[in-house]
Every structure is written in C-alpha cells, then in structure tokens.
C-alpha cells in the first residue's frame, strides 16, 4: 500500500465512520476497485478505527472521563457489597447494600455494558465471515442499500426525550445487537445505532453521544483480538508508517465529521445520506456483475 492510498483510505474512514454511510462498506469497495491486497488482514482497518476512536475521545473527553471514574466507583461498590454479603452470612446481620446506580453517568456505564455484550458475541462469532464477505463487492453494495432504508426510517421518526435515566436495559441490549450486525461491510454502524436509538425514543443529542461512546469498547476489543497476532504478520517499516499516517488522517477528518453529525441529527437531514447510500449500493452491486 502506498502512502497516497493510506491517506485516501484515512479520509474515507474519517468521513464514513461518523457520517451514516458505512466506513467498512466504502473501504471494502475501495480496496476491491483499486485491487489493494493487505497481507496483514484487517490490521489496517483496525488502525483506521483507532484513529477515528481518538476523535471520539477528543469530542467527548469530559463525558468519557466521568464514565471511567464512575466505572471504577461501581467496581469499588461491588467489592464493598461482596464484603457486606459475606459479613451478613457469617455474623447473621442484615446490613443493606450500596446501590450501584446512583446517578446518570453510572446508568450510562451500565447501559454501555449491556450494549457491548451482544456486540462482542456477534463480532467474535462473525469475525471470519466478515473478512470473507468484505472481498465480495456485492455484499457491501446490498448492505449500503439496507443502510439507506434505515436512514429513511430515522428521518421519519418523531423526536424522543429519553436520557440515561429513562433508557431501559432492554433498549441498550437491542442497540448492541444492531451494532453487532453493523460489522457487516456496508451496514453503517453510526447510522444503524443512531436509528435504533431514535426508534427507542432517545433524545437526539443523547442518541449521537450514545452511538459514538458505545463504539469505544467494541473498537478496542476488536483491536485487541487483531493485534494479538501482530507478531505473525509480515509488516514492513514503510507499511507501518503508512498505516500510522492513515490513522492520523482518519482522526482529523473524523473529528470534523462528528461535529457535522451532531448538526445532521438535530436537523434530521438523514434523507440525503439515505439517497447517497442507495445510489452507492446500487452502483456497487451493478459493478460486481460488470467486473465478474
């Protein structure tokens, strides 16, 4: 892979990860059209996702910092509750337990956990399948069409009012399933999860925040699974430099697109992206038969 190709793919990743048009679908199409064969498998894709993940940390730094603090606080309360449980058994006491969910951020943490569980299961089970179908041009094409349909649904849905306090754990679990399905190339992760949030009655601003923050454990988990095999990969120093440059470009472009997405959701302008996805998906599907 050349430096120019890495930069172009970084731009594609940064734009399509946060705008609801599917980064995996566009990357798959780009690699097929330009015959880019990466011997390192999805390592470069993971690095691009880590780049866009950096953009999420920058935009939502205060929220993420508070979520991390509350996560450790929940863990501390769990340990105290375990001690209370043991003490109650031994001394036959009836001491009360510390509530784990005492504020909105703690509820936010638990919701993200509930969303991450189905995403992790689906992502791990379908890992090999995703890598195979990403090389078949018609798959991202059809999935982009599905994304377009989902965006039309999001555009027509009434505004919700749910914030963490009102969101149910069932809502979070279903949204996690949607995120897991969105590992298919062409199914937009942000478009799918934001649509699921809006259908579940989320406040529009919180829907965007939840969609992007819930992606953090999923992306980090995927990175860990891929990077554990890095010692067996034949990566040259020049390729590493190109990969890093691509990731940095993805982070810079991604930051701009997160800000753009906040405006898109607030003004409900999904239909323009829906039309684009339908056209791109149709062209990719037709291209599959032409190339074949």
UniProtKB/TrEMBL annotation:
Its EC number is 3.6.1.27. Keywords: Antibiotic resistance, Cell membrane, Cell shape, Cell wall biogenesis/degradation, Hydrolase, Membrane, Peptidoglycan synthesis, Transmembrane, Transmembrane helix. GO terms for biological process: cell wall organization; peptidoglycan biosynthetic process; regulation of cell shape; response to antibiotic. The keyword Repressor does not apply. GO terms for molecular function: undecaprenyl-diphosphatase activity. It catalyses: di-trans,octa-cis-undecaprenyl diphosphate + H2O = di-trans,octa-cis-undecaprenyl phosphate + phosphate + H(+). Signal peptide: none annotated. The chain crosses the membrane at residues 6-30, 42-61, 107-126, 132-154, 210-228, 240-258, 270-291. GO terms for cellular component: plasma membrane. InterPro entries: UppP. Bacitracin is thought to be involved in the inhibition of peptidoglycan synthesis by sequestering undecaprenyl diphosphate, thereby reducing the pool of lipid carrier available. PANTHER family: UNDECAPRENYL-DIPHOSPHATASE. Catalyzes the dephosphorylation of undecaprenyl diphosphate (UPP). Confers resistance to bacitracin. This is Undecaprenyl-diphosphatase. The gene is uppP.
């Amino acid at each position: 892979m050349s430096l120019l190709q890495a930069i172009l793919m970084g731009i594609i990743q940064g734009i399509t990860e946060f705008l609801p048009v599917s980064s995996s679908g566009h990357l798959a199409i780009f690699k097929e059209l330009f015959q880019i064969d990466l011997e390192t498998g999805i390592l470069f894709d993971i690095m691009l996702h880590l780049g866009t993940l950096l953009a999420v940390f920058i935009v939502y730094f205060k929220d993420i910092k508070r979520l991390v603090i509350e996560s450790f606080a929940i863990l501390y309360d769990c340990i105290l509750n375990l001690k209370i449980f043991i003490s109650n058994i031994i001394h036959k006491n009836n001491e009360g337990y510390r509530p784990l969910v005492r504020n909105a951020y703690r509820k936010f943490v638990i919701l993200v956990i509930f969303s991450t569980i189905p995403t992790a299961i689906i992502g791990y089970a379908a890992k090999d399948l995703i890598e195979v179908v990403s090389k078949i041009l018609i798959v991202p094409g059809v999935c982009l069409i599905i994304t377009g349909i989902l965006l039309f649904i999001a555009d027509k849905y009434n505004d919700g009012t749910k914030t963490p306090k009102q969101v149910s754990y069932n809502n979070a679990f279903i949204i996690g399933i949607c995120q897991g399905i969105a590992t298919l190339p062409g199914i937009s992760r942000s478009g799918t999860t934001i649509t699921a949030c809006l259908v579940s009655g989320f406040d529009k601003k919180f829907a965007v925040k939840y969609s992007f923050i819930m992606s953090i454990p999923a992306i980090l988990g995927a990175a860990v699974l891929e990077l554990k095999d890095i010692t067996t990969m034949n990566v040259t120093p020049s390729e590493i430099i190109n990969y890093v440059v691509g990731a940095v470009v993805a982070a810079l472009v991604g930051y701009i697109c997160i800000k753009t997405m906040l405006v898109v959701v607030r003004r409900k302008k999904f239909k323009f992206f829906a039309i684009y996805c339908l056209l791109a998906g149709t062209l990719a599907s037709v291209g599959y038969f032409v190339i074949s």
